[in-house]
Each structure stands twice: as structure tokens, then as C-alpha cells.
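User: Reviewer 2 asked us to show a designed sequence for the structure in our supplementary figure. I'm pasting the C-alpha cells here. Could you produce the per-position amino acids so we can include them in the response letter?
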């Protein structure tokens, strides 16, 4: 079987499994990205996310992550919700409305890899969903799927940016797609202007330690720093401001993934009801939700912060 035929079969199966896009490129060292990542870390933009400093060589060379790797397959999965939150509900990032995407995508990646082995042969590979040292957006651009916007998110002309990026690194030789070389943000700065904490330092450079998503999820301190008082904009978990104002997201369409159906409590609970929720209730309702990442204590901390604005 020739690389081109293999590539076509994999793309067809990826779409059958529900992925919205699939691109491929050669596994190689990311020289330019390595320099950008090093500069980002030196500036302390990772805040207290020490894990971003680990495994630098693995992040910039997939062949060290998967020995013998020849190709990187990048997949996109839309998560834009069918329904929106009630007006009085504390804001939750749209990606966290339903079941934890790690579970959903990991299963799809395993099925895709299983299909490749059954159809093509004894192939070695590993799938990743933002839980390993992989520069997903860089591979997505190299695979022709879109460009990195000023807000640091991968953007596409046909569906905006509300999608997850998954990566499958394999020792299979495939036909590389043409890299995405254009930038369709132009002179627009809506995301930069809208960010209440000035986390977007310059186009596509994000100071993670100022990002509301970092403050409400990654930061484990008992209190959110005083400098962010009045700037949280009712965001209790994550933040979508820079995506919501992006003109390209007018093309976002509701996802077709049943697991991403919003949990009713996410859409409807008021701040007072969230405050009254016990830790036991939280664990029960959100056991398969991304919200468990910040834990009940984190949710209560975030609620107090936005309440005192």
C-alpha cells in the first residue's frame, strides 16, 4: 500500500469516527517552535505551570516521544455547544459543558490506531490529547489545518476555533499535506482589545500567568491575586472572551458529539446555587466533567473572587 493510499484511508476513518478534520505531516524537529517555547518560558509566561518546563526535548521532537516516528497526524473535533448558559449562571468555558474531552478523544484515537493496525499492518503509534509534551497547534499548522491567531488559538476559515486538537504520532510513512502558510487575522485586534487581564502580550504570544483560564483552573493558590480583582468578568471556570469576539467564530456550528451534550447544572445553576453545592454533590454531578480539574475548593474560590468584584 502506497503512502497516499494509506493517508486517504486514515482520513476517511477519522471522519467516520467523528473528527471534523485530519491533516498529516512529517515527524521532525520543530526548530522555530523550540526557540519560541524557550523564550516564552524565560519570560515566565507559564506562571506556576512548572510542567511546561519539563521534557523540552520531547515537546520539540516527536521522534524522541515516539521512537521511530515518521508522521504526525493531527485531528480536530468541534465542541461548539448547541445550547448556551442561562444569563445569571457563572460563566464556564464552552469546552467544559459536557463530558471530559480527554475520555471522548482518547477513545476515538484508540479506535483510529486499531483501524490502522488492522488495515495497514503492524504500526507503532501513540495518541495525545493535551496531556503530553506535544505542540499541537504547530503540528496542526504544518498539517494544513489552519493558522494560529492573535489569541494563540488555531483558527480555520470554515469553523473558527471552538475545537479540540488531538495528535497521533506514528512510525507509518504517510503523504504530508501542504502546510498552512496564510494568516487571515489581518489587522483585526478584537481578541487583544477584549482580554480584561491583558494576557495577550503581542500577536499569538500569551502570558499564561494572566489568562483567566489559568487563574481559574491551573492556579492552585488559596486566593487569586488582588491585581485581578474586577477583571474576572464572572468567569468561574476557564474563559472564552478572546474566542467569542473573534470574527471567524461567526462560522462556528453546533457539534454533533453526544458526549458533549451540556450537563444541565452547567447551563442553569445560579451563583448562589453553586455556592450551596456540597463537595459530595459536586463530585457526583461532575465526576466525568472537566470541572473536576479545579475541584470543589477551586470552584468556591473562583465564586468568591467574582462575587467580590
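Assistant: Here is a per-position design you can include in the supplement:
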Amino acid at each position: 500500500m502506497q503512502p497516499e493510499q494509506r493517508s486517504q484511508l486514515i482520513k476517511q476513518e477519522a471522519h467516520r469516527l467523528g473528527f471534523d478534520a485530519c491533516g498529516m505531516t512529517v515527524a521532525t524537529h520543530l526548530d522555530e517552535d523550540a526557540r519560541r517555547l524557550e523564550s516564552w518560558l524565560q519570560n515566565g509566561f507559564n506562571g506556576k505551570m512548572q510542567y511546561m518546563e519539563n521534557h523540552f526535548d520531547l515537546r520539540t521532537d516527536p521522534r524522541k516521544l515516539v521512537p521511530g516516528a515518521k508522521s504526525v497526524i493531527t485531528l480536530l473535533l468541534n465542541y461548539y455547544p448547541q445550547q448556551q448558559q442561562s444569563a445569571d449562571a457563572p460563566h464556564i468555558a464552552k469546552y467544559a459543558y459536557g463530558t471530559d474531552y480527554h475520555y471522548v478523544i482518547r477513545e476515538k484515537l484508540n479506535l483510529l490506531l486499531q483501524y490502522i493496525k488492522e488495515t495497514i499492518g503492524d504500526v507503532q503509534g501513540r495518541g495525545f490529547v493535551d496531556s503530553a509534551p506535544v505542540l499541537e497547534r504547530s503540528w496542526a499548522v504544518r498539517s494544513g489545518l489552519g493558522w494560529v491567531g492573535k489569541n494563540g488559538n488555531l483558527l480555520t476559515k470554515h469553523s473558527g476555533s471552538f475545537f479540540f486538537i488531538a495528535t497521533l504520532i506514528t512510525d507509518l510513512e504517510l503523504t504530508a499535506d501542504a502546510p498552512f502558510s496564510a494568516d487571515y487575522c489581518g489587522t483585526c485586534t478584537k481578541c487583544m482589545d477584549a482580554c480584561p487581564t491583558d494576557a495577550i502580550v503581542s500577536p499569538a504570544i500569551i502570558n499564561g500567568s494572566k489568562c483567566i483560564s489559568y487563574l481559574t483552573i491551573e492556579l492552585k493558590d488559596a486566593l487569586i491575586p488582588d491585581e485581578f480583582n474586577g477583571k474576572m468578568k464572572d468567569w468561574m471556570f476557564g474563559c472564552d472572551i478572546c474566542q467569542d469576539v473573534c470574527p471567524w467564530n461567526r462560522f462556528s456550528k453546533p457539534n454533533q458529539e453526544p458526549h458533549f451534550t451540556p450537563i444541565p447544572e452547567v447551563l442553569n445553576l445560579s451563583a448562589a446555587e453553586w455556592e450551596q453545592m456540597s463537595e459530595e454533590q459536586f463530585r457526583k454531578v461532575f465526576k466525568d466533567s472537566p470541572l473536576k480539574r479545579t475541584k470543589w475548593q477551586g470552584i468556591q474560590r473562583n465564586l468568591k473572587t467574582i462575587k467580590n468584584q
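For the response letter, you might also mention the following. The radius of gyration is 20 Å. The chain has 13 helices and ten strands.
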